[in-house]
Design brief:
Length: 403
């Protein structure tokens, strides 16, 4: 049992060593929200495709309205989706609406506030009347322009742009399939009433939600009992996943069967003790192409270890820009004790007063089995191994819990 403790960074770099994007797939743009572009995207269209009016009014020859008032003959109408097919000559005007093509011959738009319609004619009046209300063809982008890089996440702005660029399908990285398995004879499903000695399984929900937020396609495998048969049957259903995350049963107790059962199925297992709090035992291995990560069962340990070790793996397999280095500075609001040999992820709350760095205060209990302090916290203070005590006002690093 005297195996040396592995640092968080070392464990993470081993987990990430050969993690690359899983491959791309073409999907309908309607389903592409929050996916990651696997290829750079070039415009297939020019936008706007024609000179378009930016206002409601009249399309004219600008020279005609240099001196006002003047009466012009209205020869037709151009509305969005219904262009005017003729040509505007001197002394003529075409009634036009926002988004409509500017007819040939016209080079200016007079807004309707400067006009008065008189039957077949329009009177243009006013001082200093501007006519440059035209959105020129290609003013947004032209066919062939590369506008979105590979690796770009498809949020609201990217989706609208890609659609207007003429794309109905996009090549995106495949989402990693992550199977999540709770283990334990004591666990009942959420919503069930626990019997004597039982508790409600909760970790799989938080971990599933977290990994989904970072790009995973999550498959919940339910609860395996602490028997070889039950574990084997549940793990069987993870065979076409990319990652299997097990929760609990990963220590060295009599009922901790995850490692022996998976090893028996041919998994090469690394069983690490990590120099971190909360969390310490962490299992990592491969069963064919399936990556397995075994998390501790204690709820806070499970969630923190999932954030620290599984999230970056999911991100890399998903081709997403990694949030691994997502810690940021904050100012200790109170004294924080010196740290021991394990990197400590302390549950804490941030307050913001003024423009400077936020102030951070650890929550009262740092017990790794307690979920309610974790729900009060909005960040984790990351205390590296063996750092001295922090005084109020010292800068520390925090990992936001905004997932
Ligand atoms: P284990 O690692 O299996 O010894 O579990 C450590 C502690 O975490 C025990 O108190 C378990 O009851 C608890 N635990 C294990 N799995 C879960 C889960 N999925 N949800 C909530 N608590 C759990
Ligand atoms: Mg257990």
């Amino acid at each position: 049992m005297a195996s040396p403790l592995l640092s968080v960074d070392e464990a993470l770099s081993r987990i990430l060593a050969d993690a690359r994007p899983l491959g791309s797939e073409r999907i309908a743009i309607e389903s592409a929200h929050d996916r990651i572009l696997a290829e750079p995207l070039a415009a297939r269209l020019t936008q706007p495709p024609f000179d378009a009016s930016a206002m409601d009014g009249y399309a004219v020859q600008a020279a005609d309205v240099a001196k006002l008032p003047i009466k012009l003959t209205v020869i037709g109408e151009s509305a969005a989706g219904h262009p005017f097919s003729g040509r505007v000559g001197a002394g003529e005007a075409v009634r036009i609406f926002t988004g409509a093509p500017v007819p040939e011959g016209a080079d200016g738009i007079v807004i309707q506030e400067h006009t008065k319609r008189e039957g077949a004619q329009v009177l243009v009046h006013g001082d200093d009347v501007q006519t440059d209300h035209i959105r020129p063809r290609g003013g947004d982008f032209r066919e062939g322009m590369a506008l979105l890089d590979a690796g770009r996440r498809l949020g609201p702005r990217e989706l609208s742009l890609a659609a207007s660029m003429g794309h109905g399908e996009l090549a995106v990285w495949r989402r990693p399939k992550v199977a999540v398995l709770s283990t334990g004879d004591e666990l009942v499903r959420p919503g069930e009433t626990p019997g004597i000695g039982q508790i409600v399984a909760s970790n799989h929900l938080g971990i599933g939600a977290m990994l989904r937020n970072f790009g995973a396609d999550v498959i919940q495998l339910g609860i395996a009992r602490d028997t070889a048969e039950s574990l084997t049957a549940h793990v069987e259903r993870a065979k076409d996943a990319d990652i299997l995350v097990t929760i609990g049963g990963a220590s060295v107790g009599d009922h901790d069967l995850v490692a022996p059962v998976l090893s028996k199925q041919g998994m090469e297992l690394a069983f690490w003790k990590i120099a971190m709090r909360p969390g310490k035992p962490l299992m990592s291995g491969r069963l064919g192409a399936l990556r397995v990560i075994g998390l501790p069962g204690n709820p806070v340990s499970a969630l923190v270890c999932a954030r620290v070790f599984v999230v970056p793996l999911v991100e890399q397999l998903a081709g997403r820009p990694t949030a691994t280095e997502a810690t940021r500075p904050a100012v200790a609001a109170v004294a924080i004790e010196a740290n021991g040999p394990r990197q400590h992820y302390m549950r804490a709350t941030l307050t913001r007063d003024g423009d400077g760095l936020p102030r951070v205060t650890p929550v009262r209990s740092q017990d790794s089995s307690l979920l309610s302090p974790l729900a009060i916290a909005d960040c984790l203070i990351v205390r590296p191994p063996n750092v001295p005590a922090a005084k109020p006002g010292d800068t520390v690093r925090v990992l936001p819990l905004d997932f």
